[in-house]
Design a protein that fits this description.
335 residues, alpha/beta, Rossmann fold, Dihydrodipicolinate Reductase, domain 2, 9-stranded mixed beta sheet, 6-stranded parallel beta sheet, 15 strands, 27% strand, globular
């Protein structure tokens, strides 16, 4: 039986605590939060000891694995405290506030021989998982463009990050996940409206080594929530709704046959529309189950610390590109 703990019990941390109570072979042994009232409330609800002191939680309960869901500025400090004790860590995205902190956390995890996973929850969305499987099978053919749209009302919970780090990092990670090839160039445009010190709206472009283009449309200025992902390829168009967990394929009737590699694409016309069956599940449950299995089996998690660091690196490049008003060449960096 693996012992789990949660540090930081805001909205996402509470769900980590809830789900650890349901995962087979795991026992939730405690939670910690800087707010005494919140800590007491969540501890009582989950019927586990609660703390405001992270060190006391670690020393008294001796967990095997910990979820960290504190504000971004505390990720490195809290993560280092946990890893120093040889405890496996799942840290919510972004991995840390700076690339330098992320690199240091990775090196510490390697020295201590512990797993460092990063919470990029959209990889565990069943519609995304099915989309990736279809792309690997070649359903879309050669990929020309991926578009990610992530729009939301303003989140009052965020005080130390702009919309690129808070929201667009989900889709930056998905671009890397769906297109496992080098990124050679990025360009971002940002706008500040609600905040004077960080961006509230972001549009980004990614150029992949194959020539494919990634488009990111992100803001927290829209009075409704939108989460869409689409892929345009030689054989058709895949459209994914991440909220409803739906996936559709719009066939290009003029596309070359999957089996006729010598065919040349001579045009685009409407073909059949296919609604793809999705076996729905809660993405966070799948994410934590993967983390627990990685700890138990001694294997890498689906989203490693290295993945989290590269996503942070790209997100910060986008912020700098928006501030400077020019593209950033990425060739030569790991992506």
């Amino acid at each position: 039986m693996l012992k789990a703990a949660v540090i930081g019990t805001g909205s996402i941390g509470r769900n980590h605590a809830r789900l650890y109570r349901t995962i087979q072979g795991v026992r939730l042994v405690g939670i910690a939060d800087a707010n005494p009232q919140v800590a007491a409330q969540v501890g009582a609800r989950e019927n586990v000891p609660h703390y405001t002191d992270v060190v006391a939680l670690l020393d008294e309960q001796k967990p095997d694995l910990v979820s960290i869901a504190v504000p971004t500025g505390l990720h490195y400090e809290v993560g280092a405290q946990v890893i120093e004790r040889g405890v496996h860590v799942m840290v919510e995205k972004p991995i840390t506030k700076t690339v330098e902190q992320g690199e240091a956390l990775l090196q510490l995890a390697k020295r201590k021989g512990v797993i460092l996973a990063v919470g990029q929850i959209e990889r565990f969305n069943p519609a995304v998982m099915e989309l990736r499987r279809r792309l690997i099978e070649g359903m879309a053919g050669r990929i020309y463009k991926i578009v990610a749209q992530r729009l939301s009302p303003y989140p009052t919970r965020i005080s130390d990050a702009g919309v690129v780090i808070d929201l667009a990092s989900h889709d930056i990670d998905l671009m890397r996940y769906l297109m496992p090839e080098p990124i050679v160039r990025i360009y971002g445009e940002t706008l500040q409206s609600i905040n004077s010190d960080r961006e509230d709206l972001f549009n980004g472009l990614i150029r992949f080594a194959s020539g494919a283009i990634g488009v990111l449309d992100t803001n927290w200025m829209t009075p409704t929530k939108v989460r869409r992902l689409s892929v345009t390829g030689a054989r058709g168009f895949l459209e994914c709704d991440l909220l409803s967990q739906q996936l559709f394929f719009y066939e290009n009737d003029n596309a070359p046959s999957q089996w006729d590699t010598l065919s040349v694409l001579r045009g685009v016309s409407e073909g059949n529309i296919l609604g793809i069956r999705i076996q729905r599940h809660e993405p966070l449950d799948a994410e934590l189950t993967d983390f627990v299995a990685a700890v138990r089996d001694g294997r890498p998690p689906m989203v490693t610390g290295e993945d989290g660091l590269e996503t942070l690196r790209l997100a910060l490049h986008f912020v700098r590109s928006g501030a400077a008003g020019h593209p950033v060449a990425i060739a030569g960096e790991r992506t």
